[in-house]
Design brief:
The protein has 14 helices and 17 strands. By secondary structure, it is an alpha/beta fold. The protein has 2 domains: about 150 residues, Alpha-Beta Complex (Aspartate Aminotransferase, domain 1), CATH 3.90.1150.10; about 230 residues, 3-Layer(aba) Sandwich (Aspartate Aminotransferase, domain 2), CATH 3.40.640. The N and C termini lie far apart (about 50 Å). It is an enzyme of class 2 (transferase). It comes from Marinobacter xiaoshiensis. It is found in: Cytoplasm.
Length: about 400
């Protein structure tokens, strides 16, 4: 085993330079706290970007992983396995879904959703019904197809030509969708109930209700990308349940494995029928280890007291950040739902979100950014109130120093 010392400098020597990680290297986590190589402790409000929904080293997840690791790891989809079937049944029982496809990441789940939508349009109408409507500033993944459907040109730069038949409307603007949708050509409309990467912007209820009606009227499928908003993040198991608008396809990842790579595409039996044998696949999708861990995540997060706790913690964290924002005139609003919050910087501090992130690290608290103008928070759904209080104290110290 290679036991050479590991430093941040090694990243620049051996890794492709598409990331710019911070200087600290975490080596251990427990609950909502993380320790780096030097033993420095941080309170984690990043949650691995809305992934570590039950915090670090959760005993239930460790138990599920160890128990399955001693049985069977991998089979491929030439055969099925018990954890995958149990997890699929749980997802169907807890949601609108009747059929599930497993993958390994949000991008893969979305890729499957978009392929299914096109295949369904092709099968039921013809090849001309292939167009997808998405939204400006949306984020759906990094594959060529998903990055094209996403509405941020910077992620597509240098990777053209992009797949065709994709249009971008304005988020929360139904009229802009009406101008683009077509009964003959539109196979699907895809939307994040809460736009995460572009600044934590929730959809208006009337907007999602209007999309559902437009899709019904134009024989198009409605796809909800719940990669970031799903698995209890909003205080509901999935955000569509909060809005009362049911999609035809829903994608889930991030929190689904609590840190173990797993994703799912959920849909109805009627729509699922278009992905017949051989039309799509994934070597690791439905992996027994991943599904065993995800089962434990869902069994835990779906408990009413956990979901209720998310709302209480969200109120606590939101109020604390709003108070800091008022005291130092740094936030114009704190928006979002549940424990997916965006603290919007005031005019004076616009473009400086990274400075707040770095100042937070100096004080021992880890936050995220969503664009240059928004501090994003996506901590563990079970973060203790004492950790929230301490995180707020540390973040206030960071803001005080930054604004001095």
């Amino acid at each position: 085993m290679n036991k050479e010392p590991v430093s941040r400098e090694l990243f620049d020597e051996v890794m492709v330079p598409n990331y710019a990680p911070g200087s600290i290297i975490p080596v251990r986590g427990e609950g909502s706290r993380i320790w780096d190589q030097d033993g420095r402790e941080f309170i984690d409000l990043q949650g691995g970007i809305a992934v570590s929904c039950l915090g670090h080293s959760h005993p239930g997840l460790i138990g599920a992983l160890m128990e399955q690791a001693e049985k069977i790891w991998h089979l491929s989809n030439v055969m099925t396995n018990e954890p995958a079937l149990r997890l699929a049944k749980t997802l169907c029982d807890l949601t609108f879904a009747e059929r599930v496809f497993f993958a390994n990441s949000g991008g893969e789940a979305n890729e499957a959703a978009f392929k299914l939508a096109r295949r369904y349009g092709w099968e039921h109408t013809g090849p001309e019904k292939h167009e997808i409507i998405s939204f400006k500033n949306a984020f759906h993944g990094r594959t060529l197809f998903t990055v094209s459907v996403g509405g941020q040109a910077k992620y597509l730069e240098g990777f053209e030509p992009a797949p065709g038949g994709i249009h971008h409307a304005d988020f929360n603007d139904l009229e802009s969708v009406k101008k683009l949708i077509s009964k003959a050509k539109t196979c699907a409309v895809v939307v994040e109930p809460i736009q995460g990467e572009s600044g934590v912007v929730p959809a208006d209820p009337e907007f999602l209700e209007g999309l559902r009606k437009l899709c019904d009227d134009n024989n198009a499928l409605l796809i909800f990308d719940e990669v970031q908003s799903g698995v209890g993040r909003t205080g509901h198991l999935y955000a569509y349940q909060m809005y009362g608008v049911v999609p035809d396809i829903l994608t889930s990842a991030k929190g689904l494995g609590g840190g173990f790579p797993v994703a799912a595409m959920l849909t109805t039996a009627k729509v699922a029928a278009s992905l017949g044998i051989g039309t799509h696949g994934s070597t690791y999708g439905g992996n027994a280890l991943a599904c065993a861990v995800a089962q434990k995540v869902l069994d835990t997060v779906s408990q009413p007291e956990i979901l209720k706790g998310v709302k209480a913690r969200a109120d606590h964290l939101r109020k604390g950040m709003m108070d800091i924002g008022k005291r130092y005139d740094v936030f114009s609003e704190v928006r979002g739902e549940g424990l997916l919050l965006g603290c919007v910087l005031t005019e004076k501090w616009k473009g400086k979100a990274k400075e707040f992130l770095n100042a937070g690290l100096d004080e021992g608290v880890m936050v995220l950014i969503a664009g240059a103008d928004v501090i994003r928070l996506a901590p563990s759904l079970i973060i203790p109130d004492t950790d929230i209080d301490e995180a707020l104290e540390r973040f206030e110290a960071a803001v005080k120093r930054l604004t001095a």
